[in-house]
Task: inverse folding
């Protein structure tokens, strides 16, 4: 359950393209170049662990809290491997997801149910559904490979006083819940500041805002908070991140079914 | 014996080189069961209240490469002396060494892919007084040796110490009293016979395949009449199992197949079918899963299993809401004698720490010669409220 939103596997293009837009570059080429640069700047972290608190709020202000631990292993040439483990609510404590994300073929996903000691392969073709009752869909929190979207640069614009590229991306995935997403990308740091999601009918659905960014290992930017507002049902979900750690020495054997069962 | 295990369980936690804090979790639940009809046996009742507690102590050390878990369980039932029972669900040490892992102690293992019954799943005994659906298991003493490589997961088991299936007592329902304590065995070692098992399991893209073998005392007793009462008889078996799952589009196809031999016969049984999920029904967040499974046993009417030629159709509604609300509705029809079993299971979280579950089951048109006939007056509803900590 990697939360490197818009973190994309490299394709062959040059930094020169994104840094110096040429007259011959189309909006699509520039969009792809931006996406590629985002990915390039997020490559090489090796592995990552973090803790996440998810606060769900409905339009009456009722809240519900989830606590998760996340682990990600960077896989070069393919999507990342990730594991997310629930600590709260208590009735799902120990429930864990293992995901092998892929660029072109569907992700592989397993769910571990601790009460039954059962590992269940999930048919994850449909990823537009909500993740644990939140306003984040499974496809929002999966590893975002470049081939999963096509891109288009729209304009430059300031957002919260930050110079941004505004670009659209269109899911290649036929079961996606979205027609398009509009992203505000920080021009200096190539990280997302805001993403607006449009549903299958191309109506405004959700806005995701990032805040509290910190840089780790002198290179990798990670948000402290992510706010998802659903404009249609007026519900919100806030993800609060803490205790980010990198290069902790995780290997493939920390991301298999045996390790899923003992994740706790 | 149980008391000694409990003491050992607690004591172990104080001997472990404590680095990380001890983690305590678990649940306490209150349950009400009501039967719609008067019982077959006048000593049985129509309403039963019970409560259960299942705490779990967990400690890991050595950079999570070693851990100890202790999970006792106790239920107290208002009338049924056999349903009032304790068990050590888990009391096990787990060690991880490179790509190997070793479990020593009392533990639980699940094998298989199907939803209606679990033919391949043979390591743990069914805790049948908890629920006749076969989902609740007793802790099994084991030494488990496991490795996961590119070619799959390979598990070897040495299983010392047999667990007898639990059966309801004289005042308990559903079913007729079976004297589980008077169990008889084919092996002269009785419950001390040591069993062995292995399973290999692997994934090939959208396909998952498991092959397993078990040699030892059957978990699945024959119910025999010893002249005064019904008792379970446990024979020695060899069982080879295959489980197969394929994700094809929105369909999940499932198959479990076993071949079991004892000293007198060999038989084959299978469960096979699919699950198809309609995602986001009528523009909501809810998913509707359709599960259809066929259950077969080539012993036919002579089978001790009620499911020798049966078809289950079930609908699983998952609301994907904050409360994780789920509802399962199903019907199993015997294609030979038209016995019909219906079942409902629903659950919903309440607040942060409570969960309510509701179950109902009915048995219609049972055949006098078949196992489900003893449940013919036992249509029931069960409500449970659990607090998780």
Result:
């Amino acid at each position: 359950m990697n939360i490197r939103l818009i973190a994309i596997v490299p394709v062959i293009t040059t930094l020169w393209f994104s840094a110096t837009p040429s007259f011959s570059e189309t909006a699509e080429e520039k969009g792809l170049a931006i996406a590629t640069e985002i990915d390039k700047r997020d490559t090489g972290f090796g592995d990552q662990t973090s803790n996440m608190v998810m606060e769900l709020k409905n339009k009456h202000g009722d809240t519900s809290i989830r606590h998760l631990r996340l682990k990600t292993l960077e896989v070069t040439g393919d999507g990342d491997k990730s594991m997310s483990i629930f600590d709260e609510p208590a009735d799902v404590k120990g429930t864990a997801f293992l995901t092998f994300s892929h660029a072109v073929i569907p992700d592989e996903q397993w769910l571990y149910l601790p009460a039954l000691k059962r590992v269940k392969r999930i048919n994850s073709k449909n990823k537009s559904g909500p993740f644990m009752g939140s306003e984040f869909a499974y496809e929002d929190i999966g590893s975002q490979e470049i081939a999963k979207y096509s891109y288009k640069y729209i304009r430059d614009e300031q957002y919260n006083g930050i110079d941004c590229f505004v670009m659209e991306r269109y899911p290649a995935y036929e079961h996606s819940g979205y027609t398009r997403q509009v992203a505000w990308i920080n021009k200096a740091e190539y990280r997302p500041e805001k993403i607006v999601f449009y549903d299958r009918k191309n109506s405004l659905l959700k806005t995701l805002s990032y805040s509290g960014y910190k840089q780790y290992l002198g290179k990798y930017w990670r948000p402290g908070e992510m706010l998802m507002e659903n404009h249609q049902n007026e519900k919100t979900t806030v993800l609060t991140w803490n205790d980010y750690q990198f290069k902790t020495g995780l290997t493939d054997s920390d991301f298999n079914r045996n390790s899923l069962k003992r994740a706790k | 014996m149980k008391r000694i295990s409990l003491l050992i369980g607690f004591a172990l936690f104080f001997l472990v080189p404590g680095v990380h804090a001890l983690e305590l979790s678990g649940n306490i639940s209150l349950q009400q069961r009501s039967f719609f009809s008067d019982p077959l046996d006048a000593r049985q009742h129509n309403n039963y209240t019970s409560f259960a507690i299942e705490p779990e102590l967990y400690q890991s050390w050595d950079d999570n490469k070693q851990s100890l878990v202790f999970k006792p369980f106790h239920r107290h039932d208002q009338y049924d002396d056999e349903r009032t029972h304790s068990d050590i669900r888990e009391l096990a040490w787990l060690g991880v060494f490179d790509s190997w892992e070793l479990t020593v102690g009392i533990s639980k293992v699940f094998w298989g892919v199907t939803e209606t019954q679990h033919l391949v799943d043979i390591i743990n005994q069914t805790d049948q007084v908890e629920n006749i659906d076969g989902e609740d298991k007793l802790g099994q003493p084991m030494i488990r040796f496991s490795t996961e490589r590119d070619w799959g997961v390979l598990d070897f088991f040495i299983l010392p110490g047999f667990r007898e299936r639990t059966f309801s007592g004289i005042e308990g329902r559903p079913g007729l009293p079976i004297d589980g304590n008077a169990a008889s065995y084919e092996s002269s070692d009785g419950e001390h016979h040591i069993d062995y098992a292995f399973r290999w399991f692997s994934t090939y893209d959208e396909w998952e395949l498991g092959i397993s073998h078990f040699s030892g005392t059957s978990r699945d007793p024959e119910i025999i009449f010893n002249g005064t009462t019904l008792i379970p008889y446990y024979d020695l078996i060899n069982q080879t199992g295959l489980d197969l799952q394929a994700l094809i589009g929105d369909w999940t196809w499932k198959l479990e197949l076993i071949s079991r031999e004892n000293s007198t016969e060999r038989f084959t049984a299978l469960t096979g079918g699919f699950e198809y999920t309609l995602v986001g029904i009528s523009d909501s967040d809810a998913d509707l899963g359709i599960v259809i499974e066929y259950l077969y046993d080539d012993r036919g009417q002579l089978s001790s299993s009620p499911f020798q030629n049966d078809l289950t159709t079930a609908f699983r509604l998952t609301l994907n809401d904050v409360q994780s609300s789920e509802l399962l509705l199903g019907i199993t029809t015997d294609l030979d004698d038209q016995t019909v079993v219906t079942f409902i299971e629903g659950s919903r979280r309440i607040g942060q720490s409570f969960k309510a579950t509701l179950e109902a089951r009915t048995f219609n048109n049972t055949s006098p010669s078949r196992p489900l006939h003893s449940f013919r007056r036992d249509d029931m509803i069960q409500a449970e409220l659990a607090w998780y900590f």
About this structure: The CA atoms of residues 325 and 348 of chain B lie 4 Å apart. Chain B touches chain A through 47 residues (CB under 8 Å). Residues 2-388 of chain B form a domain with the Porin fold (CATH 2.40.160).
